[in-house]
Design brief:
The chain is α/β, with parallel strands linked by helices. The protein is 31% helix and 22% strand. The longest helix has 19 residues. It is globular.
Amino acid sequence: MKKVILAALAALIILPQAMAGGKIRVACVGDSVTYGMTIENREQNCYPAQLQLLLGDGYDVRNFGHSGTTLLSRGHNPYVKVDEYRQALDFKADIVIIHLGLNDTDPRNWPEYAEDFVPDYLSLIEDFRKANPDCRVYICRMTPIFHTHWRFRAGTRDWYRQEQAAIETVAGIAGTPLIDLQQALYSRPDLMPDALHPNAEGAGILAKTVFSALTGDYGGLKMPEIYSDNMVLQSGRRLRIAGTANAGDRVTVAIAGQKVEAAAGPDGRWQAELEPLEASFEPLTLKIAAGGRVLTYRNVLAGEVWLCSGQSNMAFRVNESAPEEIQEQTGYAASAARAIRFFNMTPKFRPDNIEWSEETLGMANRLDYYRPTEWSECTPETAARFSAVGFAFGRMLADSLGCPVGLIHNAIGGSTTEAWIPRRVLEEEFVDIMYDELKNPIVQEWVRGREIKNLAKSNSRIQRHPYQPCYLFETGIMPLEHYPIRGVIWYQGESNAHNIEAHERLFRLLVSSWRENWEDERMPFHFVQLSSIKRPSWPRFRDSQRRLALQTDNCEMAVCSDLGHPTNVHPTHKKAVGERLARQALKHDYGFSKITASGPELVSAVLKNGRAVLAFDNAAGLKSADGEPLRCFEVARFDGLYYPAEAVIDESGNVVLTSDRVAEPRYVRYAWQAFTDANLVNGENLPASTFKAEITAE
């Protein structure tokens, strides 16, 4: 890879020298994407034509694309056997850009001749070097093939990924710079109507990508939006600061007496690592400089940074809470919350029950979804507009840790789990959920109905929507650019509660993919179990969430079934929910070992003398929440046929169940009502989760 980077940077020096002797000849070699198939006014709008406009009169860009050709010389239509290949060699280009491989994913090609790919590619590169020994050859990661392509699930998905890896190998062996044309379009399926060929706008993105690779011009030093005055940087661990600059630029990063340097690579990206910052209320200044530009960020604090995400119950604001909570939380913000900072991402348009305008539909396709924002200090006004759960969580952390807390919020009402998962992950692990979401039975009917309503004025079958798979990852996570965080709090599931089995797959993919995104395989991911409401599937869903927490490392759950409402999916008492999440973080992430982090958790259910005896963890002070007899325990001889059980707490702190209807119960369940008034709590008044278990013999 080092060889590739040095070769690319050398090219930036060679180009001006070549220009002195006349126009620089650029040969665009490839298949139908290079040719411009399906593009209206192809000659003017294909990517080589748009590249010519960007490069200007000092360059002579020629299109040597031929539709349907393969890189493989034994493929069904080899590029080396078409006229464009000979014409490209005769052109004796100074720069050659090769984009081939898409047609090699055909079953006639890759399964038969995969072993030829690397040597055939190296041979093609050598042909152009022989034609002009001074030429610079660039090879491209292939443009995307989206899941709607008719061969995607018939091998193309897997062969495409194998080819991309082989192209990486070729670049390393040949010392050719690598231009990533996949990433350039990977989040824009709307620009590739047939899932393979970009339209004119997509070709423009390719042209800009190639232009930047050839010239090193990435617009100079730029940082992601999340870098602003008043930000909180994660303390206590090596800190990665990353952005973009022109290729080859030297970048300096300075803060708190540290100064480190980095170099922007051929793709313009750079990153610098700082030694851990100590959490402090002392305002810092972060300075980043490159190419004559200096970005200065003031009033920066070092502390604990958490992402608050999910759907509407996380998006639910402080000023929407119960009146007494609004007063108490905003009062705290006015008097004692200098430690808390907000980065509050809110949508430009919401998926309300309306038909979206053409302007809104266009913004959705362009991924222009969140409003521009910046870090803000905590005031009664900024707190009132922030997530109520997130603010309560951050408040308890700040008070307990005695350090600054930065809260990033990007939750979207009604959003699905799959909307927050990367495209690559779903393509590989759960591609079925990506197809025809307006009719797909895996997707909740309410979600489909809302999409249909919002998209009523769209004539496109690939119109984007925030509830669709990948969309919120692409708009709400990718723009964060791996900004260092401690962990995630998550409140979502309402839009996936109809299909528990699908959600179990999706949740695991969500957690693992976000940990991969932040390069932290144990990143804390704490979530809220759904509350009580009269929706039949929710008891099973809550129990599924309980099991997911047990099965997922460093993933803790906050129970809030006692705070629900029979008909309102947005209960207004959110402070306790945030505090229960904070208890989990304080105990499991910050070493507060003596804190009680959750309510009673079932450890065992044993049959003794015809009675079911249940033992619990976190059971100190076990009691009923309201002083009434324990409620909502049921037992069964046969799973599925349950009867109410009388429940008492014995002298050992166990719950003992008896039932006149079931002599020797084999199964027990608790709080198995959609809206439950179950009342088992511990001495901290933290409730037990809905659960279901098998009773074992003594």
